[in-house]
TrEMBL record:
Domain Luciferase-like: from-to ranges: 21-384, 476-833
Name of the gene this protein is made from: shy18
Matches recorded under PANTHER family: ALKANESULFONATE MONOOXYGENASE-RELATED, C2H2 FINGER DOMAIN TRANSCRIPTION FACTOR (EUROFUNG)-RELATED
Identification of the protein by name: Shy18
GO molecular function term, any single one: monooxygenase activity
Length: 888
């Protein structure tokens, strides 16, 4: 069985922290708490990479798997990371292995999915893969406001449009469109930008995507449908197909069928890889391997056996049926039938009891044997065209994965089936898949201030290559820093060495001007999706907090709750969520709406959204997870609490399928300064950002927001006020001013005018006389705070439009001076109770960050204002915030 072959075996690993077998977590050599241990996942990923696996794959269900808590509490499936958050972190501790994750097309939006996977592809250097599923578990529906799961055919119809929209968004930029030409001031070639303008049956998405084309063109698309509809969908879109056939003949029939369907759609069948599932258990002898498998099977509790049959067949309740009795009559279902139908036939033909059927399910893809027998099985299926590779699920972890890599992989390499070194740099290259060409697709008590004794807090606002719109043109910046993980990681590490409380990533998902103007800036066109980036930064840092923006207007609370809970676990309690209601109509058009929600509705929804998210974070009590292998109790069901929320805007059942975050709740940040914004912040926020630049007004805002917090029954010291502070410093004041002047000279006037127009609600100011006063424009539906600030400045200083444009171009928000002068400003605001700290903005990176860290931070420490080192582990520790108790 060693003749040469033109084909090469490909391997993926389905990663369950508790192991692929339903009772794997109970095995004496398993890590029962591995699900939420990032170091455990990192070690496993490196083991798989050592075994030259093509990809590791994280499956996902956006719900807790089942409502029968007694059986659920005896499995390791009630908690797991949000997969993209985990994979972004793993990208920094691996170099070659592909990183694939499930994301449902039924309970997501195409714009979010396109951004997240494009970001992961950039962060990982071209190793991302998306498993497009339509969701199989009806309980998912209740977490997204639905009473029932969508019909099977409708789910696939929606999925078809969803995938087309995602691919169109990935193709927003041509490969060579982003030129980053500092000399001409052109960040990208506007002729290379293609706005999808998609309007279909299920989605209306304007686009374009605000990140350059992924390194792979498109992340690799995985798919797992085996029904008739699923096979057609896979043949059109799938590049790696997961299958459930366990008999060689059935696998060969599926293989031939799917390749023929792909050819009928004009695709090269060699570019559709078929991966059946395989769960290998390796031992020195076959007898020993089978004994180990039997031991695993014996660990399946009776309640779990019933639930396993229920989950795989669907829509039945076996609670009162004896586990050693037959199956009852099975009703029709709206669930996936590709797995259900063959299982029912098996039970009928062999007259299996519920327990026997559960054991078949649990070990359906298991192959127990010696290393040679496992290698023989793989080679036989591969050479007989039953498989192009395998999706390998290890029964428990880490032992079986290490055994496979150390004992089976060398045999496959000796037989010429498996690589000895990675051939390429991307997942596509390693799988032998072509890179798709870009296509233009259309598709009330008063609070009295106490004496200030606390320490100053500093947050690093990172917007690579800098906050200033022309920062990318500065000779000392890397123009493409916004999508270069090495650059962003170096900025975060600089801030961490300086002991900043946190780094903060804002989010811009909308254009603010014409395409000609947009092509001259970088930040809104080419930047990572922030939570994906922070997950990567979590793996590359150890102490600094990690805050990202996520809109309450165009997200679902279940997704936001999972993502930030996962980030909090991965980072060891360093996550923060900046709650925003989004800015304008252009953003709405990426999510199927013609116009932005009105201001009052946005904040009403945001308040409810926040309460749902924090309620989901409280799904499990802190000590719910016992991981007790001897009793078989993974978590205490009495300590799991469903949310069952139905409000004015949202309907979410819960519970969340991940343990309570290390911080209880990730830190909540808010930036609204309107009346509605201040009300929201004073009730729910731990940190509030403000844009006030005048000391007197900042003191008034500080006092007001603290009083509002007290009126809500909160300790005002537990709401930190951090005004924005944009800084350029140098050894002398004149040098600092020269630095800023050199930067502002790089901003074209039309960009400055467009930026001013944007902050005034998107009204086109080019039709008004530049030397005339700012006209009375109608109140827009975007941020009221920014408009109010501009009007106040214009009236107070009698400014013309030209004056205001110059202020934008000259960046009058930025303070210049020596380190001592900058420290004086900070100290005056801090002791004058205008601020608890600052959200420090860096006009260009890394220069202004390096200068602040090297020159200003030591001066603040000399004055006793700022820490010399971290004293806590979590972001709440850094900020002096208590860990919230769980809400009843």
């Amino acid at each position: 069985m060693t003749e040469p072959t033109a084909r090469r075996l490909t391997l993926g690993a389905l990663v369950h922290g508790s192991g692929g077998h339903i009772a794997g977590w109970r095995h004496p050599d398993a890590r029962p708490d591995g699900q939420l241990d990032f170091a455990f996942h990192a070690d496993l990923a490196r083991t798989l990479e050592r075994g030259r696996f093509d990809a590791l794959f994280v499956a996902d269900v956006v719900a807790v798997r089942g409502h029968q808590l007694d059986s659920l509490s005896r499995t390791g499936r009630a908690e797991h990371f949000e997969p993209l958050t985990l994979l972004a972190a793993l990208s920094l501790v691996t170099e070659h292995i592909g990183l694939a994750a499930t994301a449902t097309t039924t309970y997501n939006h195409p714009f979010h999915i396109a951004r997240k996977f494009a970001s992961l592809d950039h962060i990982s250097g071209g190793r991302a893969g998306w498993n497009a599923v339509t969701s199989a578990v009806p309980l998912e529906a209740a977490n997204f406001g639905y009473d029932s799961h969508l019909e099977h055919e409708l789910r696939y119809h929606r999925a078809e449009e969803f995938v087309q929209v995602v691919k169109a968004l990935w193709d927003s930029f041509d490969d060579e469109a982003v030129v980053r030409d500092k000399a001409t001031g052109r960040y990208y070639d506007p002729t290379g930008l293609h706005t999808p303008h998609h309007r279909g049956e299920h989605f209306a998405v304007r686009g374009p995507l605000n990140i350059s084309r992924p390194p792979q063109g498109h992340p690799v698309v995985f798919q797992a449908g085996s029904s008739e509809t699923g096979r057609e969908f896979a043949a059109r879109h799938g590049e790696v197909l997961f299958t459930t056939q366990h008999e060689q003949g059935a696998a060969q029939a599926y293989y031939a069928d799917i390749k023929a369907r792909a050819a009928a759609h004009g695709r090269d069948p060699a570019h559709v890889l078929v991966w059946p599932g395989l769960s290998p258990l390796v031992a020195p002898t076959e007898t020993e391997a089978r004994r180990r498998l039997a031991e695993l099977q014996d660990l399946i509790h009776d309640d779990v056996a019933r639930r396993l049959v229920q989950d795989d067949i669907g829509d039945l309740d076996l609670t009162d049926h004896p586990v050693d009795g037959p199956l009852p009559d099975i009703p029709a279902t709206n669930r996936s039938t590709s797995r259900r139908d063959p299982l029912l036939k098996l039970a009928h033909d062999e007259k299996l009891t519920i327990r026997q059927l559960a054991h078949r399910f649990a070990a359906s893809s298991a192959v127990a044997g010696t290393p040679e027998q496992i290698a023989d099985h793989i080679e036989t299926w591969f050479r007989s065209y039953a498989a192009d590779g395998f999706n390998i699920s290890f029964p428990y972890l880490p032992g079986p994965a290490e055994d496979f890599v150390d004992q089976v992989v060398p045999l496959l390499q000796e037989r010429g089936l498996l690589r000895t070194e990675y051939e390429g740099g991307t997942l596509r290259e390693n799988l032998g898949l072509p890179r798709p060409a870009a296509r233009d697709r259309h598709l009330q008590e008063t609070w009295t201030m106490s004496r200030r004794t606390g320490q100053l807090h500093l947050n690093a606002f990172l917007k690579p290559p800098g906050e200033y719109l022309a920062a990318w043109r500065h000779p000392d910046t890397e123009a493409g820093a916004g999508v270069d993980i090495r650059e962003v990681l170096s900025f975060a590490r600089t801030a961490e060495r300086a002991a900043f409380d946190a780094v903060f990533l804002a989010d811009l998902v909308v254009p603010f001007a014409s395409e000609d103007v947009l092509s001259r800036v970088s930040v809104v066109n080419d930047s990572f999706e922030p939570t994906t980036l922070l997950a990567a930064l979590a793996a590359g840092t150890s102490r600094i907090g990690l805050i990202a923006t996520a809109s309450t207007s165009y997200n679902e609370p279940y997704h936001v709750a999972r993502t930030f809970a996962s980030l909090d676990h991965i980072s060891g309690g360093r996550a923060g969520w900046n709650v925003v209601t989004s800015l304008n109509d252009a953003e709405a058009q990426n999510f199927g709406l013609a116009a932005h929600l009105d201001h009052a509705t946005r904040y009403d929804r945001a308040e409810e959204f926040h309460d749902v998210v924090t309620g989901l974070w409280d799904s499990f009590e802190d000590d719910a997870f016992r991981h007790d292998q001897s009793s078989g109790v993974y978590f205490d069901p009495a300590k799991l609490h469903a949310l069952n929320h139905e409000g004015r805007h949202l309907k979410v059942a819960g519970p969340l399928n991940i343990a309570r975050p290390p911080q209880g709740h990730p830190v909540v940040v808010q930036a609204g300064a309107s009346e509605a914004g201040k009300n929201l912040a004073s009730r729910v926020a731990d940190v509030i950002f403000s844009g006030i630049r005048d000391l007197g007004r900042a003191q008034e805002f500080y006092a007001e927001i603290k009083e509002r917090a007290a009126a809500h029954g909160r300790d005002p010291d537990h709401l930190k006020v951090l005004p924005a502070l944009s800084v350029v410093t140098a050894p002398t004041e004149s040098e600092a001013r020269d630095k800023l002047a050199r930067l502002t000279e790089l901003l074209p006037p039309q960009v400055a005018l467009a930026d001013l127009s944007y902050w005034l609600g998107g009204f086109d100011l080019s039709t008004y006389p530049l030397d005339g006063p700012l006209p009375e424009l109608p109140v827009s539906n975007q941020s009221h705070t920014a408009q109010q600030q501009i009007y106040e400045d214009a009236r107070r200083d009698n400014l013309t439009i030209r004056d205001l444009v110059r202020r934008v171009a000259n960046d009058d928000r930025t303070i210049t001076g020596t380190p001592q002068q900058i420290a004086d400003h900070i100290e005056q605001w801090f002791h004058g109770r205008a601020a608890d700290g600052f959200n420090v903005i860096f006009p260009y990176l890394p220069g202004t960050l390096d200068d602040f860290a090297e020159l200003v931070i030591p001066e603040l420490r000399r004055r006793g204002l700022f820490r010399t080192h971290y004293t806590g582990r979590t972001l709440r520790d850094h900020l002096g915030l208590p860990r919230p108790s769980r809400r009843s």
